[in-house]
Amino acid sequence: MATSPVTPIEEYQSLRGVLPGQGLAWLRDLRDDALRRFSDRGYPSPQDEAWRYTNVAPLLKQTFIPSFSVEPPQKILAADIAASLFVDADMPLAVFVDGRFDAALSNLSALPPGVELRSLRETLDRDGATLEELLAGAVPQEPHGFIELNTAFMFDGAYVRIAPEAVAERPLHLLFVASGATQPIASYLRNVVIAARGSRAAVVEHYVSLGDAPSLCNVATQCVIERNAALDHYKLNEEGAGAYHFSGLYIEQARDSRYNSHNVAAGGRLIRNDLRCVLAGEGAECVLNGLYLGQGREHIDNQTSVEHRVPHCSSREWYKG
Asked: Which end of the chain is more exposed for a tag (fewer CB within 10 A), N or C?
């Protein structure tokens, strides 16, 4: 007799003990609450207005194993990612393989003064109290089921902080690799980018696959841009034909801040990008640029929202496909 697939709720109950931040009561409550909402809401469907053109039913017919339950983790070589790196060898680089930070493939020695870049898993285990307000408050009150699962299962990701008045001359390259493992892997990533007062930086959030094997990337990226800070954010999807990618991008801007988003989707079986930008301080400006290049049976869905919470802000959007 065939066994029924394990539900996300059953999976969470069996794996919660290996998730980072075990000593943080607020994080346990945050995860539990998210899973409770998922239990009530379930996965989004075409009956949901925001998902009327994106059907996730084919995804739900497959079984993906959370990457943090696979031991030992899949290993890849530097040669495997060489084609995904940029020409500038001094560009700071953080590599994540199947949702786990890989220090051996990364290059953090090139970080300039005033710039922190490390694993979110490490941050939660070492100094998680500093993330409570951010992780608990940046995601909308009524997100879809994939973001609820991201909050429940978030295991690793990039933590970036640009100190007040610091300037990063070179972009920070965050490379997320689906290894093409024999078993379909699900990665649950949470990225945090904080551009403190008066700082300047550029971040490249880059997703690739080694081959066309099925994979699932469930990621949420939170950007906090403080007063008079400027952040250029590049998100590149170059995943394989078997990749499912669900992304939530949440930006909050303070007074006189600048945010430029450049979102390029050029590979993946199904890509869903939700971008929510809140202009919370007067004089804030955001520019949202997007390019999507689908082929064959690829499906790319970009959903954007800009909330002008206060007057005297400006936003521009330009998406082409």
From this structure: N
| 236 phi, psi to nearest 5 deg | -120, 125
Model-wide pTM > 0.90: yes
Backbone angles phi, psi at 78, to 5 degrees: -60, -35
Least confident of 79-93, 113-127, 133-147: 133-147
From CA 212, how far away is CA 243, in angstroms rounded? 7
Residue for token digits 């290049």?
293
Distances (CA, A) of 16 to 129, 150, 152, 181, 213: 19, 13, 9, 23, 27
State yes or no: pLDDT of 27 exceeds 70: yes
Question: What distance in Å separates the CA atoms of residue 208 and residue 216, rounded to the nearest whole number?
Answer: 12
> What single string gives the DSSP state of each residue in 83-119?
GGS-S-TTS-EEEEETTEE-GGG-B-TTPPTTEEEEE
Q: How far apart are CA 92 and CA 109, in angstroms?
A: 7
Shortest CA distance to 257 belongs to which of 317, 170, 194, 197? 197
pLDDT digits (tens, 9 = 90+) for 270-320: 999 999 999 999 999 999 999 999 988 899 999 999 999 999 999 999 999
Amino acid type, 309: R
